[in-house]
Amino acid sequence: MVGTLRVGLVLLGAALPLQAFAQSAANLTALRGLAPVARLQTSPEGKAALEANLRVTGDIQTGDLKQPTLLPFPEQQQLALRDCFITDGNAANLADGLGTTLARAYHAKAAYSDYKSFTSIAPSVANLIGYTNNVTKSDSNSGKYFFANATTNGKHPVSAEGDAVLSNGAVTDVFGKAYDRPAGSPGADRYGNSRPFQTLPRLRAYRGKDYFGDPSHSLDWLRGPSQDLVNSPSYPSGHTTYGYTESMMLALLVPERYQQMIARAAEYGNDRIIVGAHYAMDVLGGRATSLHALAHLLANDPAYVGQIRKNPAVLDKATAEADKTVGVTDYRALLTEARAAMTEALKAGCGDTVAACAANDTGRFKDPAANAAFYAATQTYDLPVVHPETAGRREDVGKVAPEAGHLLTAAFPALTLDEANAILTDTQGPGGGFLDDGSEFGVYSRLDLYAAAGKASALAASRTSAGATR
User: Fold this and answer.
1) Residue 225: is the preceding peptide bond cis (ω within 30°)?
2) How many whole angstroms separate alpha carbon 218 and alpha carbon 226?
3) Cβ–Cβ contacts within 10 Å for residue 169, how many?
4) What band does 22 get if pLDDT is binned at 50, 70 and 90?
5) Both 109 and 19 in a single domain?
6) Which of 66, 208, 250, 390 satisfies CB 3.0 to 4.6 Å to 81 for a cystine?
7) 332/424 same-domain check
8) 131: Cβ–Cβ under 8 A, 6 or more apart, which residues?
């Protein structure tokens, strides 16, 4: 176990006032992918999607929409309150997706003792999480003010390349304008894209306990003091980006729990709607942002590796041991090293093989059918079709987004990249959504990794079994 790390309370989705975020080439790619939201007002289909976005968000938030959540709604509300705190240093609050036995072993090594201190399961795992989270966080954060008021931080205009993204009818502050809370108006976000707790006609606020078991209230994480989102633009959801990024990290490190970790990622994003912090569209945007960046990392895309990516959460230079993420040039090698350390730690902690311990689960993820039903409910949130040209078309993932297959091959190496992309093509979710404009990024918005992992795991297992009988 690495030593205790001193970290600042850096929360994805929280606005760091007037902090500038440089637009890297990777950021600009993500912004182009997320940009269809800014053109929704230009078509009847887009306007209908915006109306549905507010309605669905409100119905989920109040509990009027009976989702197939993995917990009864009052319990899900309480989890949503605990999920407001981001354990981005070690993914501790997501590790319950590993199952009761493995989660216990994980938490014995990786935990937050308070809001500023955490431990990690191993240095290589900390390095992997730190680098990956920082890359995906950068893409997500770059969109906050960009889509709110075409700036990098609320005041400084975007680059010429960024300005070009906002073309062809794109407008900033699309949520504020659509939901009668334009930027700077009473009760609105001063920059734009006010959040659901500022726009919904009804908001269900509630009390409970936070991640550490202390008395809390949902409004504490919306208006302060725990987290002040009043002037923090909504789109895309940074919490969801974090939830998918670090859930995927655990899925790749423990492939036996891949599907359950995907279900946990979907739950984490959905919890942001339940607490009143994000719209369904924010969650879908955060999910696509995370998966897109992670696939490019796994492909060792030079735009995503080989950079200085120090985790800004680490403040104490004396603990720089936790930040060996500078200059990663072979991301897959980093993943391989971390998986070996993870396997060793979990075996020691649970007293058996990882596969055996992974099967021993009595928690809320024990029912595959329930996991699948919940994930399916979050695939599109039943938002209406915006792009009819892609609605009935099955995108060839291998042609449009060939690196996407690495999201499977990194966990199931018995598969070739072509096979993985064929599985992603076969299992992709409904088309025509607000991000599915035929682009590479649009493909990521349609990926159904829950279904895909089921097929990938079965194929990999059949090959292993066939090889053992030869």
Assistant:
1) yes
2) 10
3) 12
4) low
5) yes
6) 208
7) no
8) 309, 311, 325, 328, 331, 334
